[in-house]
Amino acid sequence: MPKAQRTTNDRAAAPPRRGQGNGTRLERSAARREAILAAALDEFSVQGFAATRLDDVARRAGVAKGTIYLHFRDKEALFQELVRSVLGPFVGTLEHVLASEVPARVIFGQMVEMFVREVYGTRRKDVIRLIVTEGTRFPWLAEFYYREVLSRILGAVRALLQRAIERGEISPSVARFPQLLGAPAIVAILWNSLFERFEPLDVAAFMHAQLDLLFGAEKDS
Amino acid sequence: MPKAQRTTNDRAAAPPRRGQGNGTRLERSAARREAILAAALDEFSVQGFAATRLDDVARRAGVAKGTIYLHFRDKEALFQELVRSVLGPFVGTLEHVLASEVPARVIFGQMVEMFVREVYGTRRKDVIRLIVTEGTRFPWLAEFYYREVLSRILGAVRALLQRAIERGEISPSVARFPQLLGAPAIVAILWNSLFERFEPLDVAAFMHAQLDLLFGAEKDS
Amino acid sequence: MPKAQRTTNDRAAAPPRRGQGNGTRLERSAARREAILAAALDEFSVQGFAATRLDDVARRAGVAKGTIYLHFRDKEALFQELVRSVLGPFVGTLEHVLASEVPARVIFGQMVEMFVREVYGTRRKDVIRLIVTEGTRFPWLAEFYYREVLSRILGAVRALLQRAIERGEISPSVARFPQLLGAPAIVAILWNSLFERFEPLDVAAFMHAQLDLLFGAEKDS
Amino acid sequence: MPKAQRTTNDRAAAPPRRGQGNGTRLERSAARREAILAAALDEFSVQGFAATRLDDVARRAGVAKGTIYLHFRDKEALFQELVRSVLGPFVGTLEHVLASEVPARVIFGQMVEMFVREVYGTRRKDVIRLIVTEGTRFPWLAEFYYREVLSRILGAVRALLQRAIERGEISPSVARFPQLLGAPAIVAILWNSLFERFEPLDVAAFMHAQLDLLFGAEKDS
DNA sequence: GATGAATGAGGGTTCATTCAT
DNA sequence: TATGAATGAACCCTCATTCAT
User: Fold this and answer.
1) Which of B76, B157, B176, B179 is the mutation pick for testing A, counting most A CBs within 10 A?
2) The overall pTM is greater than 0.85
3) Does the pLDDT at position C10 exceed 70?
């Protein structure tokens, strides 16, 4: 989406339908909160944090500007909640997959598939991008991502690689840099966000190519 | 409070010393321009384009706010000149290195060394980061980088890989994604800008590990 | 010091009295808009468009600076709306008066009275002055005034003079320049705005003197 | 000249021809001063005082910005000198003409011709306009014009009208408003500056029509 | 004298945040 | 609870004025 100018009047999902029976007061409040988070992600992704106007977030969410402040202390808290709400629930499932006992090659194959489906194909991709683009301005952001996501994944990957080395599935030297496994994922997200219009990158194939380097080329795709 | 950390009163190198014999008028004008560019890079790198105040750039460069406008049309032009001035002179040297006729493995080893010395060890690293962080908001930025830098590098790398495959130095499958060679470089820059305080990444070793994957482990590093 | 006289802290009519029951929200919004227009007219009339600070307009209107932008796109739009809001409603009444069937002399006498009461005695006088002083810098302003006001008045006056000539009330030669009837009105406004402190000009008498020239001296005033 | 956008690189009369023998140092200084005054009049006339940039004046005059300050204390002093330099020498000649002993009708006929030639056909017209447009913002301007020009002209005109009345050339009632004689002149200048593109006004004919009203229609055009 | 780079106060405009309804 | 009009601090950019050359 290289669009830089502002979209004006496209709101999120359903029209407000105020005063109708679509849920209890609590449910409606929660739905509003979600709508705001979704709208904020849209805007932050395109404009960046600093250049995003809460006015636009509110319009896109179909709420009034003041409503945002009923759910979030300020713009930065909204950003923080956004990152947590998108990434938080995901962390648990990651460790689960990595703890499996099947061969490393198979697990990493599953990881690629999972990344493409659950990250690259979803809004999580945008949050990952936001961490890269806003991380230096918001130390809590880099820290949150490192502590809650990266360190856990890397820990699990290190354990997995250790087992793979012990089984002779992989060369010992690469275990020093588990980041080598994640690098193509990050690069794929960034590449397509910046250069897709010039030269699109096939994310899954790209990641598999890196797996081929690590484990030797095999049957898959 | 969207103001993240904000450095206040550190100016560039030498104090102004108005009216002294530090160069001709033209020389001092050029020096000021450079000081502004350097200060802008500092600020843009930390705050991002949108959150950077030209006031801070001016203070850091040791000039008055209005002086910026003697050298650059507006904030975005300053940004544009910044990217061009840092990357422009570099583009030529890149192709020179990649055109060498020694074995691919050797060339890529030189590339790693060159990247560490000429990019990671310099302000160019910060400009690369800016392209990643601001590229979606400034289409000209992504386009400039793709046309002037990426496409040229990738073209040369592809040619190099082709020769390497023909000589049997490398497996044919990887030639499809020359980006695999650059991925560790980008990831290393981003990793250390975000997570160095938690877990620093040895850039050279990281890149060499990827080379080992491509060519098989060897003597170097 | 290009700041001529500058009135500082006199605001409009009533103090803000926020949160009190002075009208519905819509009424208060409209009242604010009017206050801003009135304040803008005051400032523009004295300082001219370019030298007027919106800060001063806001203070005089008793609102914050940002409030102006809730009602007007920018400074020039405020100016435009100001001219339209003051002159617009007046255009219709003009033609009505000129269409009367009584003798020309009587109609022009009524016109004088109407001008003194409805233009010279009101803010419309200031808008007329603004058209003279800012008309060259804002082509839309001169055009608006010519199309919406002048050409209509002149058309009606020409018709009226034609009838007067046919009835022998007036010499044919003057019909060529209906502007001769309006000239004293314009000159009176300008004279008193510039030289009243030295030598005030009796607007009604001045205009009647011109009528006397056209129709011959008679009973009135 | 309804042109609102700025003309960029058209300088006044002769190219600088620095270092050539076009006069003594004093002569060249005086020439520069004149060039600046001429350029200032051009710019002030089109943009108005407040919106005129001394940068543009300097460029149009073919001098550097700083040079203006060698001749004039500040922007307002430049404006003041401009008005004085254009109108000052003219005042004397006016009184001379009005003191003539020929019939009033003849004198006024000469005045019309003189106005068209010496005012409307010259830069003096622009200064008159500036007095109208900037007079409220600069009290000294209105005062200067009233004291040095208007009061003198009106005095002479009053005396002339008095004589004309005594000779029966004119009705006594009009002597009360000598401004009636000048009104068409002012209105003609303003009309053509604002509305010439829609409906040009023949200045000489317009003024003669007013004379015809005062003295009765006669031979002259 | 003449220059024009440099200055920095000032003004138009934006937008996060508040609060009366 | 939700609204959105109102606020005012902040920021980009301009331009009158200065001053070292």
Assistant:
1) B179
2) yes
3) no
